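anyone seen this seq b4? input:
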Amino acid sequence: MARLRCVVEYDGTGFAGFQVQSGQPQVRTVQGALESAVLASTAAPSRVIGAGRTDAGVHAAGQVVHFDTDNSWEPAVWQAALNARLPPDVVIRSVNVAPAEFHARYSARSREYRYAVYNLPIRSPIVARWTWQVPEPLNVEQMNAAADECRGEQDFRAFAARDNPTSTVRRILRLSCRRFADIVVVEVTANAFLRHMVRRLVGSLVRVGSGRLRPESLREIIDAKQRGLAGPTVPPAGLCLMKVNY
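predicted toks r here
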């Protein structure tokens, strides 16, 4: 039995998230597409485990998955076989043989996400699929001042979805905002994330950038640990899982 580690890229627009929905086989998910491709390639089912359980509409450039197989194909053969059977919005970027103890989710040391904001009042059909449009001008310098309040190990309960686990303490290793012409990019790396945490952080930073919150407000929101004080859960289209570090 071999354990294979794959780096996967996908456009999340047409998926109801990464994870297979229990009792709903008709719901389209990335995990379901990958498992179907493995089954079609080998005639043997295998559970595919992902590093990040991305929500509906969230993209990935560097999702990592693993699965076990009795098949002895070389990694390049596996990559070609799976890509031939995957839909156009999913692709295997690389395949490697992993140690038996490797686990795509639990072996991960950190994850890197990127959120893209289209910052113009006139919409763009070209970038709409991968961004969230904010019409009012954003002050990136103020957003970075607010980001300074979020780094380190802290209780991010205020930025969590209601169905998150008991512990809401996470460690943000990096959080920065940059402008590229009309696109403002928020990049964040952490040891782990709560569900909706990145999207609510972005919602709060955008409120700072538009002048509706002071940069110091992020510290007050974190300390208060109340969900209602944080910014909104921004749309999933702008979010992309860029890399998983081991």
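The helical segments are 30-42, 75-85, 140-147, 197-209, 217-224. The two ends are 22 Å apart (CA to CA). kinda curious what u guys think
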